[in-house]
Amino acid sequence: MISRKVRYQAYGVAFQAICLVANITAIVFLFSLLADIFITGSPHLSLDFLTQYQSNRAERSGMLAAVTGSAYVLLITAIAGIPMGVGAAIYLEEYSRDTPFIRFIKLNIQNLASVPSIIYGILGLTLFVGGFTHGVTLMAGFGAITTVAILVLPGLVYFLMGMALLIQFVSDRRFLLAGGALLALVGVLGFYALVSYRLASNEMAMGRGVLAGALTMALLILPVVVIATQEAIRAVPDSFRHAGFGIGMTRWQVVRHMLLPVAVPGILTGIILALGRAVGETAPLIVVGALTYVTFSPVSPFDRFTVMPIQIFNWTRYPQKEFHDLAATGIIIVIAFLLLMNGLAIYLRAYYRSKLKHIS
Q1: Count of domains forming the chain
Q2: What percentage of the chain's residues is helix, strand, coil (to nearest 5)?
Q3: Is residue 13 located within the same domain as residue 60?
C-alpha cells in the first residue's frame, strides 16, 4: 500500500507538471502572437509612418495624430491623477484616524479599482463633457462667478502638481505651500487666457476634447495609484517612523524624509502600471468623444483627438489587407511605448534604490 507521504509527493510532482505545462502554453501563445504581429507589421514600420496623418490610402496612412493624442492625454492624466492619488494615499496611511468613515473610504477605493472602464467613460461624459460644454458657454454670459467655478479644477490640478514637484526640493512646509500656490496661479491664468482666446476665435471644441478625455482617464487610474502608494508606504518598516519621532521630527518631516524616499520604488511601479492601463484603454475615450479618423494633431486641451488603440481599431474595420497590416504596425508602436515607460520606471527604481544604499 502506498504511504501517505509518497502519495503527497506524487501530488506535488503532478501539480508542478500542470503548472509547467500551463506556463509553457501561455508563453508559446504569447510569442506566437508577438511573432505574427512583428512579421506582419514590421515591413510598414518607418519614419513616415510616425510622421504622417491618417489617410484613405494605406500607403499614405500614419499614426502621427494618434501618437500625439496619446502622449497629450497621458501627460494630462499623469498631472491630474498622480499627485492626487499619492497625496490621498499619504493622508489615508499617515494622517487619518481609524474611523468607520475612513474604513468605508478605503473599501470603496479598492472597489473602484475593479470597476469596468466603461463606467468611468459614462462618468466623464456626464461630469467633464457636460461640465466643460455648459460651463464654458455660461462663462461668456455670466462672467466672474462661472469663471471662478470653471477655474477651480485646473487650479487644484496645478496646485497639486506644484506640490509634487517641489516636495523633493523644499523641506519647509510654508515654502512648499507657497510654491504650489504660485504654480496654481500661473496655471489658472494660462488656462483662462486659453479659454478666452478659443472663445474669441469661435474654435472651442469644449467638452469633447483632450482635457475631458484625460481627466476621465485620471479618474480611471486614481484608485490604482492610491492602492499602490498605500502598499508601498505600508512596506516601510515601522522602525523608520519610530526613529524619526525619536529624534524629534514632526509627522510631515517623517513622511518627507523617511517614508517617501523608501517608498518611491513601489510608488513608481504602481504609477507605471496605472499609466500603462491608461495607454491601452479605448472604451472611456470613445464614450467621452474621441474620434476614429483624425488628420491633425491636438494643440489645445479642448481640441478633438484620437489615441493609438482607437486608431488601430479603426484600421481593422477596413476590408483591405493593407490596413490590417498597418494595424499590426500600430500594435508594435504601442508595445514600444509601453516598453519605454517600463524602462523608465526600472531606471528610476534603480536610481532611488542606489541613493538609499548610498545613504545607508
Answers
A1: 2
A2: 80, 0, 20
A3: no
**Are the C-beta atoms of 89 and 234 separated by less than 8 Å?**
no
Secondary structure (3-state) at 249: coil
Dihedral angle, C-alpha 288, 209, 206, 301, nearest 10 °: 140
**Cell triple for 168:** 523633493
Instruction: Specify the pTM.
Output: 0.77
Here the cell at position 255 is 513622511
pLDDT attached to residue 153: 57
Q: What is the pLDDT of residues 280-325, one digit of tens each?
A: 888 888 888 888 888 888 887 778 889 999 999 888 888 888 888 8
Burial class of residue 267 (count of CB atoms within 10 Å of its CB; 0-12, 13-18, 19+): buried
* C-alpha to C-alpha distance for 231 and 236, rounded to whole angstroms: 9
Domain that holds residue 33: 4-44
Which residues, 6+ apart, have CB-to-CB distance to 288 below 8 Å?
Answer: 121, 124, 125, 128, 129, 208, 212, 213, 216
Q: How far apart are CA 189 and CA 196, in angstroms?
A: 10
